[in-house]
Design brief:
Length: 574
């Protein structure tokens, strides 16, 4: 990190941790998330019974229930295929399989496929030197500094460049910063996970094809495979981020996993060469053991002890292929993990890592039990409930926020605010009305107004516009009491296209209202990140100044101030 980037990172962190003021964006805010409809996919996989593919329905039922039982996994959806046929699909809670899902690093594997297409076309070689691909001026300095760095080093996370996605939040020209950063080690030697390696591959695709990464993939993979309703966020220069930022539906992501499983074939048509798929799913780098039980190929993880491949993203996005049995398991989650640290992989391996017969006798009883389990996992299977009498203390009342922390609190989860450089101007008031027999939450910020129905018993989905970034949000609430017998209106907002969930609790405290907010991923994940940074000689001084301290308890306290605030409100008119 150079001095300029360090200064900017310090300023951004200081603004985020100051709960008394609204966070001022470091870069001009731009719209990154368009409205995306909830619709079925084109060219869906065939659906069939698990037994017809040699897997027991009870076996799958056990897998789904075990994921649900482990609350730390925050399972959101599951799709299981064998031999290119869907044998089970399930959505947990208020999730919807029709929603395009935000992928963090799972989309790195999609960029690897784009690079493979260029290699197949003869436009690129994994042995091409990166400096030669970007040195328009022909200067010798760039070639000397990046001597030996190849496309394969980008693909295998061995470039040696320390410029990371966190630093990119305060930069406008990512290519220039990547190429201008002093290397940390010799290219091709040490595995250092860095999403900017993938971004550079995205930039290479743009340069070699004269098209955006999305347009190129649409022509070569997305259209032939019936993959639609996708969106890829771009950097300030208009190049797809590559290492994160792709919105794609679960089944369409499964199609790309099935393409790899089939060695580059889709419905008998050769889309990517078998040679490139083999190279991409062969281990080229050995990551640290703490990342999980996988080595690294070309932006695709490769099982160390099992014949598996994996598209993997933080918080629990996984396309896990068991190549010996032809079983593909696709999941999304909101767990507090970066790589493969959660129990999910042990569970998945235990259920699907062994041998399976070609088929089993049909078992109608077991299939019905599996169907009931899938239905019970979804909140949308529940019946709507009427307004209860205890709702009266909240209905048709407005409450003005009178708290010094209000400028830093908004409806959009902080994780999404930071991700999209789209910060709240601060909450001013909350109100609850009644519309169509349902409570309606009216949440007013300094520069925006949000009003939407809250389902009772069964969620209600609304489309909410956060300063141009539009999200599908499922709202589910209930009226209850806290441990002090105070009336509580509990509201769970599931941002369907992301791993994020916003929890709002309105607590009547005499004439006052307490507005409590939390989110997942939340305090455990973010405070853990800050505590890890505090151990680094590079980041500890920044935390000492920006946060006011670097001790574990203090950093957790600061994180709770930002991610789990409690605000005091007065009923309007008092």
């Amino acid at each position: 990190m150079n001095l300029t980037t360090a200064s900017r990172a310090f300023q951004l962190l200081t603004r985020l941790l100051d709960v008394r003021t609204a966070t001022k964006p470091f870069l001009p805010a731009v719209v990154e998330k368009p409205a995306m409809p909830l619709e079925d996919v084109l060219q869906p996989f065939p659906r069939t019974s698990p037994e017809s593919q040699g897997v027991s329905s009870r076996h799958i039922q056990g897998f789904l229930e075990e994921l649900q039982a482990d609350r730390a996994l925050y399972a959101q959806d599951v799709m299981i295929l064998r031999n290119g046929a869907v044998i089970c699909e399930a959505a947990y809670g208020a999730q919807d399989l029709r929603a395009p899902q935000y992928t963090f690093s799972a989309c790195k594997s999609v960029v690897a496929l784009a690079a493979g297409l260029l290699c197949d076309d003869g436009l690129l070689s994994v042995h091409d030197e990166v400096a030669a691909l970007f040195d328009e001026s022909g200067t010798a300095s760039l070639r000397r500094r990046l001597k030996g760095m190849t496309v394969e080093d980008l693909l295998t996370m061995r470039s040696g460049v320390p410029f990371t996605e966190a630093e990119a939040l305060t930069e406008t020209d990512w290519i220039r910063r990547f190429l201008g950063t002093a290397l940390k080690g010799e290219p091709g030697t040490e595995f250092t996970y860095n999403s900017l390696n993938t971004y550079m591959l995205s930039a290479i695709v743009c340069r070699k094809t004269g098209k955006t990464l999305t347009a190129f993939l649409r022509e070569r993979l997305f259209d032939p495979m019936g993959i639609t309703n996708v969106h890829w966020e771009t950097c300030p220069k208009g190049i797809e981020k590559g290492g994160w930022g792709l919105y794609i539906r679960t089944e369409d992501l499964a199609k790309l996993g099935q393409l790899v499983m089939n060695g580059g074939l889709w419905k008998g048509q050769r889309l990517v060469s078998e040679e490139y798929i083999h190279a991409a799913t062969t281990a080229h780098a050995i990551p640290p053991e703490e990342t999980g039980d996988f080595n690294y190929g070309y932006q695709i993880w490769v099982g160390r002890h099992e014949n598996t491949f994996l598209f993997n993203g933080m918080l629990g996005q996984n396309v896990l292929g068991f190549r010996d049995s032809g079983i593909l398991v696709v999941t999304h989650a909101g767990a507090d993990t970066d790589f493969q640290e959660s129990r999910y992989f042990e569970i998945a391996s235990r259920y699907f890592g062994g041998a399976f017969p070609a088929r089993l006798p049909e078992d109608g009883t077991a299939q019905q039990a599996l169907t009931e389990t899938v239905r019970s996992l979804s909140s949308f299977s529940c019946a709507p409930e009427p307004l209860p009498p205890q709702a009266g203390v909240f209905l048709n009342r407005s409450f003005t926020v009178r708290d010094g922390k209000a400028p830093s609190v908004g409806l959009l989860p902080m994780a999404l605010q930071a991700l999209h450089n789209n910060y709240t101007a601060g909450v001013e008031s909350v109100a609850v009305s009644v519309k169509g027999g349902l409570p309606e939450l009216i949440y007013r910020e300094k520069d925006a107004l949000y009003r939407f129905p809250v389902g009772l018993g069964c969620p209600v989905v609304s489309q909410l516009d956060f300063r141009g970034n539009v999200f599908q949000v499922a709202a589910l609430g209930r009226f209850t009491h806290d441990e002090e017998e105070r009336p509580v209106f509990y509201i769970c907002l599931t941002f369907l296209e992301t791993p994020c969930v916003r929890i709002i609790k309105l607590v009547r405290d005499g004439r006052r209202l307490l507005l409590r907010q939390t989110e997942t991923p939340g305090v455990p994940y973010i405070s853990g990140k800050l505590c890890a940074a505090a151990q680094s000689p590079l980041y500890r001084p920044v935390l000492l100044v920006a946060a006011g301290g670097a001790e574990e308890d203090y950093l957790r306290f600061k994180t709770m101030q930002v991610l789990s605030p409690e605000l005091i409100c007065q009923e309007s008119g008092d």
